[in-house]
Amino acid sequence: MDIPKTYDPREAEQRHYARWEEQNCFAPEINRDANAPVFSIVIPPPNVTGSLHMGHALQHTLMDVLARHKRMCGYRTLWLPGMDHAGISTQLVVSRELKKEKLSRHDLGREKFIERVWQWKHESGGQITKQMRREGASVDWSRERFTMDEGLSRAVREAFVRLYDEGMIYRGDRIVNWCPNDQTVLSDLEVEKVPVERGGKLYYLRYPLKTTDGGSRHLTVATTRPETMLGDTAVAVNPADARYLDLIGATLLLPIVNREIPIIADEYVDAEFGTGAVKITPAHDPNDYEMGVRHNLPQVVVIDQFARMTEAAGADFFGLDRYKARELVLAKFEELGLLEKVVDYEFSISKCERCKTVIEPLISTQWFCRMDELRRPALELMASERRPRFTPETPYEKVYTDWLENLRDWTLSRQLWWGHQIPAWHTSDGRVIVARSEAEARAKAGTDELTQDPDVLDTWFSSALWPFSTLGWPDETEDLKTFYPTSVLVTARDIIFLWVSRMVMDGLKFMDGSPFADVFVTGTVLDKHGQRMSKTKGNGVDPLDVFDKYGVDATRLTLASIGSTDTRWNDTQVESYRNFANKIWNAARFSLMNSEGATIGSGFEGEPASWALHDRWILSRLNRAAQSVDSALAAYDFYAAVQTLYHFFWDDFCDWHIELTKRDVTSDEATPERAAARSRLVTVLEQALRLLHPFMPYITEELWQRLPGVDERLLHTAYAGAQPTVMLTAYPQARIDLIDERAEWEMQMVIDLIKRVRNIRSELSLKPSEEINIIVGTTDERLQSLFGAESLGQIKRLTRAASVAVRPSLEGAPRASARAVLGAGVEVAVPLEGLIDFAQERERLNREREKLQKEAAKLEAQLSNPQFAERAPAEKVNETREQLADIAGRIQALSEMQEALV
RNA sequence: GGUCGAGUAGCUCAGCAAGGCCAGAGCGUCUGUCUUACAAACAGAGGGUCAAAGGUUCGAAUCCUUUCUCGACCACCA
């Protein structure tokens, strides 16, 4: 048996994924149990332009842990992968490529350009799917989907037509967020508010009153965008503002353009802000637009789609960039003596989330979706059933609900070429026909003279259908019936609105049920300074580098521990899990080096009571761990699950169980006892590998395959007939009957004794080679036989003691002994003639005693408080009394030990 | 402006929803070990007035209030 001393992750990572994939282990069809429960997850489809970052790695790890766990529990498990066509991003990527050839998309024309995008997709898109294989993600590649697939495109058209027919989608002129750089409209969610850089200014402009008597009164308005005054069609004041009561209804003469505009009254105006008078530009400001609608004000468009001034802005301004126009307007006001003042003012402006260009609000004809009827069922579902159930519940449940409550109409159209073209056709006589296909449109229109609407849909329109469009909707496929609704959605928090809420609304609309029961929101991986990792900052850590350096399994454990917490990334964490992987490797190495004659699943015959203490103990610990992991995963507490597994494997199994069992399994004689001990060891190891598998798929598979005699009989019954693999074994379910409190207590006493003696060895600087003798004083008969017989050999071996004498007390132990207290009534002495410095030893015991005395003082204070006995539960009071008694006993013992040293 | 979260050992984080088991883990630190699975290890040790101040309670890291410091999200005050 030649197993290297160090685990090499790369080898295992290369070996197993391809085999799992070839043998169809990831497909739900691998499950042969007709009555198997179903578990399904759809992946949040990454952008086809994207490459793997830590956020993906985090999500994927959590989803994979859940999927592998459920699969091992016998669920018919589907984790469906796929990608999003990512309209703007992808169009930009390909446009950039074209630019290298000195071409623009317009040179190619729409059709050729789209062909080019598909070509790009096939050649360079979807990097991320290759990277997901490295992660070990157990997704069913046979069901991989892309939002621009024909099937999903059909779903998009179907959904659009249905919503249109029900009057929820409409086309109209409204003020929208326009990106002058990308030349498209954007939804509110694609716009970000950023504090204006280099300090904002608020400009106070005077507008002269039109008077018949030639007077020179004026009204001052405050604005952050002076250039828009060219499009002003009114000035508004609050109807309750006493200062302006007499001016309501009067007329102003708009400077520079000399247009007559009215002074109107509107509740919207805040009298406290600025001068209490607001210039109204209905064509270039969302609020002014609303007010314009209320007051029937004309809309004068002075800025065009390139953010340049239009002809309507006047000859002096025509063609000027908006910011140049601002300077010119200010100069002219200055010249006219109408610029009252300029003050510093901090405010935020809207920018295109993608290209950071300042948004220009423009009136334009777009497609919109009314959200009222869509959101109502979602809000009702949350109110009545609290679905979907968010983890963590705070703040996400509230964030989600608040957003739905304040939702406004969704701008659906985009002026792009890459995406789902809107299924609407225009007739030459100006009618608009919405249909599932051009043929259907022709039939509806009664003419063949149709032009399809050039716009495409917001990428998120197709994403919103993802949980059912990927399963075949609108057809009633088997997959749809089986896997919808999905079990849980795992996602980052930044797309709760963009994606999660819209999936819920569309799921309720088209499938009559929420697309998932639970939503798990992952934390954010931050850099060491607590900053978000981002491409522009260049502070990201590449998961692939981490995989290379520490292995996939170690990285997965780190990510699983992160769960829903925002965490600063640090390599040392991964390093410690790499060490853990190596620990597993070596524990297996030891087991395998001593596995001749061993059979997995045997060695535990007969009644548990007949087994050795350490065997009862490890099974108790194993089942306890299984229980903890199970409840942790049910609560999506990945951190707790990892901690449990880590400490079970390292502390219980490696540090104690392997050590306790070492002599039996390494014995030179091939006795039946040795074979049984070896069988028990590999049996426990095999169970441990199963427990670890969802978190550490590679190392567990690598080692499992090396275990003696692994074959298809070890598989979960649902996977009968599959090739042997740990990923299709049954996940260990806690057997309550094997959780043995008594055995755990007894084992703990043995462990404590060994630790006490080791502590003495260390404090007195005894060489490891130096043999000692141990005297234990206790009147407890069980402990007497435990220390004196049952565990005697183990205690001797693990403390390197020549003898262990068990007596009712330490009385008569040599004066020159190091002593310690295990608990009330259990004491230990190690005779060390010539090695004990009595003063030092007394001091050591004194330190111990002082610690205990502090504790005792606390408890005494508590007990002497009459209120405590009165108000605290009796159980608590008793517990405290017992504690104090125990401590008092130990203090007493320590005092006597000190006296014995005098 | 609104809403919410976080501040616990040198570092990264648990614990807090249902208050009581001397406040936990990993890494780092100190001491000693190549004890035939593992030095990426083993054995042992030290380290925190749980951001600050009040309050509720027999009892608070955990509940309440205020303050300070970070952070996130939402927002139509020009």
In words, what does this structure look like?
With 902 residues, the chain is α/β, with parallel strands linked by helices. The protein is 45% helix and 17% strand. The chain contains 29 helices and 31 strands. Helix 2 (54-72) crosses helix 18 and helix 17 packs across helix 18. The longest helix is centred in the last third of the chain and has 29 residues, at 638-666. The model has no long low-confidence stretch (mean pLDDT 92). The protein binds one RNA strand of 78 nucleotides through strand 9, strand 13, helix 8, helix 11 and strand 27.
Briefly say what this structure is.
The protein is of the alpha/beta class. The protein has 29 helices and 31 strands. 45% of the residues lie in helices and 17% in strands.
Write the layout of secondary structure elements.
Blueprint: H1 9-22, E1 38-42, H2 54-72, E2 76-80, E3 82-83, H3 87-100, H4 105-108, H5 110-123, H6 127-135, E4 145-146, H7 150-165, E5 169-179, E6 184-186, E7 191-195, E8 201-208, E9 218-223, E10 234-237, E11 251-254, E12 259-265, E13 277-280, H8 286-295, H9 322-336, E14 339-344, E15 348-352, E16 360-369, H10 372-385, E17 389-391, H11 393-405, E18 410-411, E19 413-414, E20 424-427, E21 432-434, H12 438-445, E22 450-452, E23 456-457, H13 459-463, H14 466-469, H15 478-483, E24 486-491, H16 496-511, E25 516-521, E26 525-526, H17 543-550, H18 552-562, E27 567-568, H19 571-593, H20 613-634, H21 638-666, H22 672-692, H23 697-706, H24 741-763, E28 772-778, H25 781-790, H26 792-799, E29 801-807, E30 817-823, E31 826-831, H27 838-864, H28 866-871, H29 874-900
Parallel strand pairs: 1-2, 3-4, 10-12, 17-25, 24-25, 26-27, 28-29
Antiparallel strand pairs: 5-6, 5-16, 7-15, 8-9, 8-14, 10-13, 11-12, 16-18, 19-23, 20-21, 20-22, 28-31, 30-31
Helix pairs in contact: 1-23, 2-18, 10-16, 17-18, 18-19, 18-21, 19-21, 19-22, 20-21, 20-22, 20-24, 21-22, 22-23, 27-29
The protein binds one RNA strand of 78 nucleotides through strand 9, strand 13, helix 8, helix 11 and strand 27.
